[in-house]
Specification:
Elements: H1 2-15, H2 20-27, E1 31-38, E2 44-53, E3 59-65, H3 71-88, E4 94-99, H4 108-122, E5 131-135, H5 141-155, H6 179-194, E6 201-206, H7 210-222, E7 226-233, E8 236-239, H8 246-254, E9 266-268, H9 270-274, E10 280-283, E11 302-305, H10 313-321, E12 325-327, H11 329-332, H12 335-348, H13 355-380, H14 384-396
Parallel strand pairs: 3-4, 3-5, 6-7, 6-10, 10-11, 11-12
Antiparallel strand pairs: 1-2, 2-4, 7-8, 8-9
Helix pairs in contact: 1-2, 1-3, 1-14, 3-14, 4-5, 6-7, 6-12, 6-13, 12-13, 13-14
This protein binds glutamic acid.
């Protein structure tokens, strides 16, 4: 993923006429922190925080708990955050954190201890005007609440603006939970309009986590012309060309079930889903889901990157050569960090906005950002993915 992000920055930077120094400046990270967390049961975990760029505002980015977390992954995700906040047009920079752990193996007490110790290891490097973490893969409002509490004890800060993605009772924002999925809908709707792809729009969705499930549930309510025909989780899923009910799928997942268990259509694997003949393929699982190995199988007209880095550089090049539009992660999933910024603003100003106001602001930011990316694509003869990087680069270079 780091390689993919850096290749895109280099390629787009060159197309825009940047010097080598300017490109390297965009690639380099400002600061990298790593430490060991030891829990009271004696187990050890590697923890990271990478601060990539703060020229536009405080560092901003989530914390991931996953066994796959390592330095390069966190570097890549931190880099993507700087470009994401720049495309979104919010006054924040980019960072990312993570712990190499499988949180499903931990008791609730151990998870709390891990979360609090993560903050202890980083207390001097984070804060409302320095670096503002948020949830990412396998972290949620409960984990963030523990972290805020720990940070308040260590620093005395009471603004609640030290973290975003908090619970509502603890200074969180209405609409934050659904924001990444909702943002994906806004971006997809705008791009489909611009490309004159009209309904019924068939959709295959990979990944039924927080982002994918909110995308499907909100789309079912608000986009009657879109038809979800396939969905998978990590163990596979189902395909039904007549359409699937997101609500039904979600109810099953909420009770701990797997999508593949549902007898609502033909059962399919994740690889099969990627090759389905649909209008839109949505990648909302983990990174590198599409690579040069399976990109040839793709038949979708358009791919929306709702996860971070779900397509490798080589996979993306194959898709671009076939004329498949890729709506990049730094635009498609920026709804989460946009509402994080709105949460931070509410905390700073001691305000509490209605969900309607939050969603309206989200809509304004994303319609504008999508327009700017599309205009840049046409003006500079770029792909959508390159255009998103170009817009970000123009805001990040000094
Ligand atoms: N983890 C989310 C992302 O990758 C949100 C980050 C944030 O809200 O700071 O964009």
């Amino acid at each position: 993923m780091l390689d993919t992000a850096q290749k895109l920055i280099r390629k787009t930077g060159k197309k825009l006429g940047l010097s080598n120094e300017q490109v390297e400046e965009l690639i380099n990270t400002d600061a990298e922190h790593n430490f060991e967390i030891q829990l009271s049961d004696g187990s050890n975990y590697k923890a990271y925080r990478v601060q990539h760029n703060n020229r536009r505002g405080p560092y901003k980015g989530g914390i991931r708990f996953h066994p796959q977390v390592d330095y390069d992954e966190v570097r890549a995700l931190a880099t993507l955050m700087s470009f994401k906040t720049a495309v979104a047009g919010i006054p924040m920079g980019g960072s990312k954190g993570g712990v190499s752990v499988d949180p499903r193996q931990l008791s609730k007490e151990a998870l709390e201890e891990l979360s609090r110790k993560y903050v202890r290891g980083l207390k001097d490097h984070i804060g409302p005007d320095k670096d503002v973490p948020a949830p990412d893969v396998n972290t949620n409002a409960q984990i963030i609440d523990w972290m805020v509490d720990e940070y308040e004890k260590l620093s005395g800060d009471k603004t609640k603006a030290s973290f975003t993605g908090k619970s509502l009772e603890n200074g969180g924002s209405l609409g934050r939970d659904a924001a990444t999925g909702r943002g994906g809908i806004i971006v997809l709707r705008e791009i489909l309009n611009k490309l004159s792809i009209s309904g019924p729009v068939t959709i295959a969705l990979q990944g039924w986590g927080n982002v994918g499930s909110f995308f499907a549930l909100v789309a079912e309510q608000e986009q009657p012309d879109w038809k979800l025909v396939a969905a998978t989780d990590s163990s596979g899923g189902i395909y039904n060309p007549e359409g699937l009910s997101a609500k039904e799928l979600n109810n099953h997942k909420k009770t701990g079930g797997k999508l593949a268990e549902l007898k609502l259509g033909k059962s399919i694997s994740n690889e099969h889903l990627i090759g389905l003949e649909v209008d839109v393929l949505i990648l909302a699982a983990l990174e590198d889901a599409v690579s040069d190995k399976n990109a040839d199988a793709l038949k979708a007209k358009l791919v929306l990157e709702l996860a971070n880095g779900p397509i490798t550089y080589e996979g993306y090049e194959k898709m671009a050569a076939k004329g498949i539009h890729v709506v990049p992660d730094i635009l498609a999933n920026s709804g989460g960090v946009i509402v994080s910024y709105l949460e931070w603003l509410q905390n700073k100003n001691h305000e509490h906005w209605s969900e309607e106001k939050v969603n309206k602001e989200l809509e304004n930011y994303l319609v504008k950002a999508t327009d700017e990316v599309y205009e840049s694509m046409k003006k500079h003869n770029l792909t959508l993915k390159e255009a998103a990087f170009a817009v970000a680069i123009s805001r990040l270079v000094s």
